[in-house]
Design goal:
About 75% of the residues lie in helices and about 0% in strands. The protein is an all-alpha fold and about 70 residues long. It has one domain. It is rod-shaped. It is a multi-pass membrane protein. It is found in: Membrane.
């Protein structure tokens, strides 16, 4: 048991050293935490455009990505 705070970072730092722990924190901050928000934004944009553009059989992918990007920026 490691009596330090920091969660997984503390365990990785104790087991493998500072570099793998540092890389884990950056990958988590940049990729993992933001991927969930991107998936939610894409799903919401897809449903929103399908409701607005009912007459279209297929919603353009570029429009879905544009609305998702606007949602993420706001």
């Amino acid at each position: 048991m490691i009596p330090e705070s920091g969660g997984m970072y503390a365990y990785l730092h104790a087991a493998f050293g500072p570099l793998p722990a540092f890389l884990y924190v950056w990958v988590t901050a940049v990729v993992r935490n933001n991927a969930g928000g991107a998936v939610v934004a894409l799903t919401f944009a897809n449903y929103l455009l399908r409701a607005v553009l009912e007459e279209c059989e297929a919603v353009p992918e570029a429009a879905v990505r544009l609305v998702a990007a606007l949602l993420i920026c706001e």
